């Protein structure tokens, strides 16, 4: 029976694919001797457990739905203020469609104020400690990096670092890398709603985001293992003096921080997307190819490891290339019009469910860099490596899902 199960849908290729992903990550590791095997096996086991829970049990799916609804409600509260200021420009169903500047950037400002209030009342510090106690024995990661990785599964890659902004200054390079990889290996709740309206299965996007928690930590800690002592590791005494004198002061300072963050994100996004367009134009004029074509060829072996054959494999590679060179929005738009089989579309939903693309390097430079300017050099050094690592994490989630489904 096991043999028949593995042969069906080429699931044996998925198992080979998991080993291939781990091997590739190992080859790019900065400190191979510092890799913790316990973390590798624990994170991979946790990913399978999460996958089975959310894909095979009703209770797991209900929990995911409840969390997603809560996040969407928070985004809804942010939309109330945004709509008051910008009116119908925030309506993605209108003639002008989805406008990033009016739909996403104001949410960053709102989260800046919200997280400032949460920190003022000690709520964030409390959750850092709880997560540290729960996850530390399993993965051996610090409270701050793990909280951010979990938050990234539902919030955006610029909102989540706001939750731990008071811890970012003392984070090690390995922890910062986890923050970056988990940010690109997931999608936010607001974007999930947009993709769902396009016809992408919401249930599987939710499952992919949760499965990306251990996947992103796993890949990040193989490529950049911890070589220092974290300030939020188990047993560490972490205290931060509140900068705000009262809740209104917290709202004011958080709003200012969020505004500066939103401006940086918008500016970096404009520059990086424009530079990618310039590079594509140069490649097309000189070699008659573009970045999408190059990466579709590079991703073709991964398509076969996902269990696809022939035309489906070629289409899957094209989608993966599109996601990395442009973004997941364009890739999902293509996917829903390709007439793929239901199983192929589900697996590709996992593989594409992340912000891992070149333009997001700019978002993280503008977003995280605004919170910790002294670590901007790290962010720029790790940018391309983050896109690579988060892409591996997304494909790993797709491989695990393909085995389970």
Rg over alpha carbons? 20 Å
Oligomer: single chain
Q: What is the string of helix and strand elements?
A: HHHHHHHHHHHHHHHHHHHHH
**Count of the domains:** 1
Q: How many beta-strand segments? A: 0
Sum up the overall morphology in one term: globular
User: Mean pLDDT, nearest integer?
Assistant: 87
Biggest sheet overview: none
- The helicity comes to over 70%
The total of helices stands at: 21
Distance, first to last CA: 16 Å
Unreliable sequence segments: none
- Percent strand: under 5%
Structural class label: mainly alpha
Search tags:
405 residues; mainly alpha; 21 helices; globular
Would you give an account of this structure?
The chain has 405 residues and is mainly alpha-helical. The protein has one domain. The protein contains 21 helices and no strands. Helix 4 crosses helix 6 and helix 11 runs antiparallel to helix 13.
Topology diagram in text:
Blueprint: H1 2-7, H2 11-27, H3 37-56, H4 58-86, H5 100-103, H6 105-120, H7 123-139, H8 143-152, H9 160-163, H10 165-168, H11 173-184, H12 189-198, H13 202-223, H14 247-287, H15 291-298, H16 300-305, H17 310-325, H18 328-335, H19 342-352, H20 359-371, H21 376-404
